[in-house]
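Example 333, ligand S-adenosyl-L-homocysteine.
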Amino acid sequence: MAPDKEELIRLLSDEENQDALFQKADEVRRRNVGNEVHLRGLIEFSNICRNNCLYCGIRRDNADVCRYRMSEDKLAETARQAVALGFKTIVLQSGEDMYYTAARMCRIIEAIKKLDVAVTLSLGERTYAEYKAFRLAGADRYLMRIETTDKELYHRLDPGMSWQHRYECLLAIKELGYELGSGIMVGLPGQSLASIAGDLLFLRDLQIDMAGIGPFIPHPKTPLAKEKGGTLNLALRTMAAMRLLLPDINIPATTAMESLHPDGRIKALCAGANVIMPNVTGGEYRKFYELYPGKAGADETPLYAYSAVGKKILALGRTIGTGYGSHRRTTAG
Ligand code: SAH
């Protein structure tokens, strides 16, 4: 039986018995999506952003960030190198940078699709026409976290943005036939466990294909610098509960988890996760895509990212996914 809201709150609060939750989520993961761990090559291609989210290190008002955008050629070259290493999915993530017009983005997507990989976009909020153009250009998946379903909290943390608009973007993305990834941060200032339980039920009702869940980590150059941030354990419990609610989706062991503990992603793989997204951004850029401090892998090479992560996966008795790693629904709906 899938947990209801009350049971979710209980699971989220029960640190003492969290190992039992992790084991259960691990078993549900094994039965529904098997032992393959899918690797996605993440390219953070621009840290220029029109938004000013209070939690985010690359927010518009952070004047201390060295801003960059990668050229179309550089992006294609980075993708080619990642594909040569074995990645079957390329994830393109950026701030909301309108330099990448629909036409420019479509050219980038088409070039990368020629490499015979799945392409995931994570560019934030765009128009319906743009989402449609990206899809027609070959994009397969889109990731955009709702961040929190507490609308008051959202509007406080994301000034000038609209929760309803973000939600409508998610619906548009789904309607256009993308595989939809969404998710939340846990440990935001003023976020309760009941609120997180509500987020999980929201993500279930949205029937997402992928759920990215990570702890909020305060960045010193943001208005939330002095906040406490989320813990790895609460993030893991949230992720494990997500696995119980949506047994067959893709769930990444997130970079923010790894940033709080050197084995954060391994712990996540043993608590319901089945995806890792190693960073393959070129070394000259990656240190500038600092969403939060201590971001794991800031000085790794793509080759190291692939081989070190691969070894850890094999050591767990799991295998590296050989296909595109798309979400296959095993249950009705
Ligand atoms: N512009 C894109 C990508 C945003 S960055 C978009 O809007 O979707 C990717 C994710 O990093 C965000 O959705 C947020 O959940 C997470 N993030 C940002 N700042 C963070 C912080 N300080 N700690 C942890 N995660 C953070």
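Summary: The radius of gyration is 18 Å.
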